[in-house]
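Backbone-to-sequence.
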């Protein structure tokens, strides 16, 4: 296992919604990294089938889940918005502008990993948690399947219900 104890680690994702697999990654990062930056990608997107929730809503989901596991304020964790840009060659510089300095990128996205490796940035490949996928969670919300709530942290499920998240997702389809 790599030693990240003196490194700032970046976790980038859309978090539509923030699910149990995401939380497991952040818990691992908090234990092994000097600091964690959670970069919420496609931050300008909301109210679409792929990106139903706004940056502010996603930040709230993440904060509630981390507080539920007592990760805030115990660990140095920052949440930042990162909007999309069309040029892949500028993408990593754009992320740095928004997220600040970081040493390692944690991701399960092959494109993100390739872009980072091409620029000489250290990466930690994340493995998908079987049965937990944001696309499937959104599909379950669209189909009014209550089991979606079992795939997100309790605090996220409560928050999404309080903002009528599942109903909003259904109305987007």
């Amino acid at each position: 296992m790599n030693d990240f104890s003196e490194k700032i680690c970046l976790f980038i994702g859309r978090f539509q919604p923030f699910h149990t697999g995401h939380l497991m990654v952040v818990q691992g990062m908090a234990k092994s990294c000097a600091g964690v930056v959670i970069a919420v990608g496609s931050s300008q997107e909301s109210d679409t089938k792929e990106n139903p929730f706004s940056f502010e809503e996603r930040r709230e989901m993440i904060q509630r889940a981390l507080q539920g596991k007592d990760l805030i304020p115990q660990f140095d964790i920052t949440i930042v918005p990162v909007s999309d840009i069309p040029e892949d060659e500028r993408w990593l510089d754009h992320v740095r502008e928004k997220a600040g300095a970081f040493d390692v990128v944690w991701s399960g996205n092959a494109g993100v990993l390739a872009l980072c490796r091409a620029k000489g940035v250290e990466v930690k490949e994340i493995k998908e948690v079987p049965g937990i996928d944001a696309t499937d969670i959104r599909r379950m919300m669209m189909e009014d399947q209550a089991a979606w709530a079992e795939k997100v942290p309790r605090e996220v499920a409560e928050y999404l219900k309080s903002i009528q998240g599942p109903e909003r997702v259904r109305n987007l389809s």
